[in-house]
Amino acid sequence: MKKERQKILITGATGLVGSEIVKLCQQQNFTVHYLTTSKEKIVSKDSYKGFYWNPDANEIDLNCFEGITAIINLAGASISKRWTDSYKQKVLSSRINSLRTLYHGVKKTGSDNIKSFVSASAIGIYPNSLVNYYTEEETAVDNSFLGDVVEAWEKEIDTFNDFDFSVAKIRIGLVLSTNGGALPEMAKPIKNYVGAAFGSGDQWQSWVHLNDLARAFMFVISNKLQGTYNGVGPNPVTNDKLTKEIAKVLDRPLILPNVPKFMMKLILGEMSYILFASQRVSCKKLEEEGFTFNYMNVCRALENLYQKEEKAPAQRKTYDNEFV
Q1: Residue 202 maps to which CATH number?
Q2: Residue 322 lies in a domain
C-alpha cells in the first residue's frame, strides 16, 4: 500500500527520541513542524520548521498546525533528576500542560487533515514485580510517584479521543543509546572499573534500541493505530544481565559487589526507585500489528551502539532533556 506524504507536528523534537524520529522523517521525505519553548531554537526550512509554544501558559503558535496530518507528542521533563517536591510537580505538569495546550490548539484550528496522534507514555505505570509479565491489558497501576504520573498522563492523552483521528500511546521502556538516556550513565562506572548491578540485580529491565523505538512511533503513525502499545524490545533482561552485557561489549571486568539499595537512596533520594523497579513487559501487541524489531536481543543492540560510537565519536551531541 502506498503511503501518503505526511506533514508531522512533533513536540520534544530536539530530545533524544525526537531527534531520531526527525531523522527518520527526513529519510522518508516527510515535512516536520516542531514546537519549542526556546525561540533561539526555531529553524525555518522547507521540510523542518520550528514554532514557539509555552505550555505552562497555554501559549502556542497556531501556525504549527497548518497542513498537519499527524502529531507525535514527546513533551515532558526528564525523570532522571533529583525528585524534590518542586521537581516532581514539574514532571507532572510538563506532561499535562503540553497535552492540554496541544488539545486546545487542535480544537481552535480544526482536525480535518489530522489522521493520527501518538503520545509517549511509560512502562512505569506497571506495578513493580519480579514475576509478572505485563501486557497492555494490565489495569493495575504501580503504587509510586511514577505510577501516579503515568496514570494522569494517559488520562490526559485520552482526551484526544474527542477528535476524529486515531489516538495511540506508546509506553516506553529503557531506551538504549550512547548519546543520552540511561545507558551512558550505566556505562560510565563500568568503563572506570567500578561498575556493578543494583540491589539483587534480579529486577527486570524492559529495554529498546533508540532506532527501533523511533521506527515504532513512525509505524504507529503511518498505520493509524489506535490504543496502547508497549515500546520495548522482545527480550527483557535483568539488571544483572544488562550490566554484564554492557561490561562485555566494553571489555571491562565486573569486580565489585552489587550496589545496595540504601546507598543509592542516600545518593539519589527518592529517584533511586527507578534503579530498582522491576517491570517485565511484552511487545507482542506491536509485533502482531506487523512491526519488526531490528534489535531482538540486548547484546546485539549494545554491539551496534558501541560499534557506531567507536566509528564516529565526533558525531556525539548533547540532546535536550526529555522524559527518558
Answers
A1: 3.40.50.720
A2: no
**pLDDT computed for residue 6 by the predictor:** 84
In a domain, 320, yes or no: no
Report d(CA 74, CA 15) in Å as an integer.
8
pTM comes to 0.94
3-state secondary structure of 48: strand
Tell me how far apart the alpha carbons of residues 304 and 143 are, in angstroms, rounded to a whole number: 36
Cell 509478572 identifies what position?
132
In the chain, the number of structural domains is 1
Closest CA to 213 of 279, 159, 286, 275: 286
3 state DSSP class of 132:
coil
Question: For the chain, which residues score pLDDT lower than 50?
Answer: 1, 314, 321
pLDDT at res. 270? 92
Of 185, 186, 150, 187, the closest CA to residue 170 belongs to: 150
Which residues does 26 contact at the CB level (< 8 Å), separation at least 6?
32, 47, 48
Q: Is the residue at 314 inside a domain?
A: no
Which residues are registered as beta bridge partners of 51? 35
Domain ranges, residue 88? 7-306
pLDDT of residue 1: 43
The 10 Å Cβ neighbour count of residue 34 is 25
**Residue 272's pLDDT is what?**
93
What does the pLDDT read at residue 40?
Answer: 87
Contact 182, 189 (CB under 8 A): no
DSSP-assigned letter for residue 259: B
- Distance between CA atoms of 120 and 171, rounded to whole angstroms? 6
